[in-house]
Amino acid sequence: MAVTDAPKIITSRFDLDDGHTLARYEATGGYQGLKAALARPPASVVEEVKSASLLGRGGAGFPAGVKWGFCPPGVFPRYLVVNGDESEPGTYKDRLLMERDPHQLIEGVLIACYAVGCSQAFLYVRGEMALAQERIAQALNDAYAAGHIGKNIHGSDFSVDVVLHWGAGAYIVGEETALIESLEGNRGMPRLKPPFFPAAKGLYLQPTIVNNVETLSNLPWILTNGAAAFAALGAENSKGTRIFAVSGHVKRPGVYEVEFGVTTFRDLLYAPVYGGGIRHDHELKAFIPGGASAPWLYPEHLDVPLEAGTVGKLGTMLGSGAVVVFDETTDMVKACLRLVRFFARESCGKCTPCREGTTWLEKILERIVDGHGRPEDVNLLLDVCDNISVGMNWPPKQTTICPLGQSATSPIASAVMRFQDEFEAYVGGPAEITVDVKGPAFVGPVRQEVAADA
Amino acid sequence: MARFSEANLATALEIVSRYPRPKSATIPLLHLAQEQDGYVTDDAMEHIAELTGTTPVQVLGTCSFYEMFKREPVGRYLVNICTNISCQIMGGEELLHHAEHVLGIKAGSTTPDGLFTIEDVECIAACTEAPCLQVNYRYFHKISNEEFDEVVADLRAGRRTDEIPPHGTLARVRQHIPADRAAGPADPAGVPEPVWLSAHADAAEGEEA
User: Fold this and answer.
1) φ, ψ (nearest 5 deg) of residue B74
2) Separation of alpha carbons A441 and A318, rounded Å
3) In this complex, how many residue pairs, one in chain A and one in chain B, have their CB atoms less than 8 Å apart?
4) Structural domains in chain B (count)
5) A43, A186, A292 member nearest B62 (Cβ)
6) Domain holding A390: CATH number?
7) Pairing mode, if any, of strands A241-248 and A322-327?
8) Mean pLDDT over the full length of chain B
9) Residue A445: pLDDT band with limits 50, 70, 90
10) Any residues with CB less than 8 A from the CB of A1 and at least 6 apart, and which?
11) Rounded average pLDDT over A6-18
């Protein structure tokens, strides 16, 4: 077990009743990272963040410093948009960061704006998070009054407004170009690529950096303590610490900040300070390692470290740090239906494979769960998935503008390949699988048979 | 009948002024309209179109995309019960059925007295606290059937109003940027390289040389 004594970088104020107030924030080292940043040239702040190897914490895991560098030189104004539209099923971290430590996020926003040269920042908070909106509004008002935001911050030539913006209920708005569309007052539909990064053309077609709440919340610590201290924590491609929300059938569901890259899934699920083991001492059946979009993992993967590269090689991802644990009593067909229903409901409707595919997947699964399924429906599920994301490979092939559609194929390929017997019990007969499922995470009895036939 | 009141118009204009382009204020103004009337009226959408320099149909187009905007009245208390994966496996669907039974309505409908609307919603980011629900977007974590009944009884009796404002009200604290501290919105067509970048760029070149 590797439960390390790594410092709490971003959750250090979570246990304080007044951690969200300016007074407490300033008394516990607040706005010192901004002060340190303002004392050096913006380019060196970018270098500091690059050398910290801070991976984006939103889901895609792209290095933050590198993303900043994609802004075309000489094109201004640049904008910063904070993605606080946390809605990936199983994910529960950004809401806490916004409710319990809003100033830490705001300080991170200011450091990023200074480094990249953004003239205005928009903090997009999910619509359903009323308390987070209140806490951030209050924090912004207090920070303006104290001279931390606005014109000539801390007496320097750095000036920027941070505007609180809030959504109105749409998962797809977490996709960065949909977020920008929403911020422009439109329906939250993803934009056609290229350009692949809003850093080239984003808000109002200007260079725009979109960063996740957790990513930005790391910046004050990095600027205060140095990139070297941050990069000393974690493993090869996963530096620092990371928040994981462990939910489902564990004894101690909770939100835990752990050292990235070295802590294992076994630690996270079983260590007394984290998940504490499976409820009622049941057997572990499967777990989702990184949100509803991630292919599932199983008991044989427990000793895998929470390291982005290692988990990627297994054919899945750490995504948004959402670990959902299923014990032996879980009906995997019903779990699969619920996840697919989510994607069907949240598809924006722009691309046909996603709009039609997720809808039909939901209908077929409903038929199966209602007891009206046919044995051939099991293969039909995979066939529909194959039309949304050819081969169900990893990383998934995309037939659509954004990754939502292909995400819906993860729970299906995971459940069907591993728990084919549960589907067969529902449909009342053996299912013949003819679709070639390529993703390495989709393993189980079926996969072995297909391999044997080949 | 349901254009913005004088006080809300002032708030709306302040919100619009924070954005480089007024259309960006569409969603915040739709929320303001819903706060005023409990739902978004046609008149409010016309007023928003005037304030954001768009057309009513553009406002409707945006409004109709987002689940939180209701274009007809809903209950004073909107009860959103999560049945997504973490809640599903911890009893979220049973909680939903209990709520439907207690209130005598199906998800998606409103009690005849206009007090409660139930919705079966997607993940609301409280996964480690499953099963969970929101009443007017205020959280209730790890809620049992008995606790649900208590909340309903309290709301029927007019209690908990400090904790839970009527449907439509989200944050009860608004951002206010003081005029003397404002850096101002960044016009996409007219903002040059920020001074703190250009000043340091020269300095950096000097250092290297």
Assistant:
1) -120, 180
2) 13
3) 239
4) 2
5) A186
6) 1.20.1440.230
7) parallel
8) 95
9) low
10) A264, A266, A267, A271
11) 97
Find the domain containing A403 and state its range. Answer: 332-453
Give B-chain residues touching A126 at CB under 8 angstroms: 125
Lowest mean pLDDT among A124-133, A289-298, A353-362, B198-207: B198-207
The rounded distance, in Å, linking the Cα atoms of A404 and A409 is 9
Residue A47: which CATH number?
A: 3.40.50.11540
What is the complex's ipTM, to 2 decimals? 0.96
A299-306 mean pLDDT: 96
User: Which chain A residues are within 8 Å of B134, Cβ to Cβ?
Assistant: 128
Which element (helix H / strand E) includes A83?
Answer: strand A78-84
Per CB-CB distance under 8 Å, the chain B contacts of A89 are 84-86, 122-123, 127
Q: Is A284 within 8 Å of chain B by CB?
A: no
d(CA B44, CA B30): 8
Tell whether the model's pLDDT for residue B33 goes beyond 50: yes
- The SS3 of residue A397 is coil
Question: Are A307 and A387 in a shared domain?
Answer: no
Taking a contact as any Cβ pair under 8 Å apart, which residues of chain A between 357 and 416 contact chain B? none
Residue of chain A with shortest Cα separation from B175: A137
Beta-carbon separation of B68 and A169 below 8 A: yes
Using CA atoms, how far apart are residues A324 and A296, in angstroms rounded to an integer? Answer: 9
Q: What does the DSSP assignment read for A290-309? A: SSTTSPPB-GGGTT-BS-HH
Q: Are residues A347 and A396 in the same domain?
A: yes
Residues in A touching B51 (Cβ below 8 Å)? none
Residue B63 is predicted with a pLDDT of 98
Q: Percent of chain A at pLDDT above 70?
A: 98
Same domain, A122 and A244: no
Within an 8 Å CB–CB cutoff, is residue A134 touching chain B? yes
Q: Do B137 and A245 touch (CB under 8 A)?
A: no
Per-residue model confidence (pLDDT) at position B208: 40
Provide the CA A55 distance to its chain's centre, in angstroms: 11
Cα angle A110, A115, A117; round to 5 = 90
Residue A75 sits at the vertex; the CA angle it makes with A72 and A78, to the nearest 5 degrees, is 90
Placement of tokens 């169900």 in the chain: A392
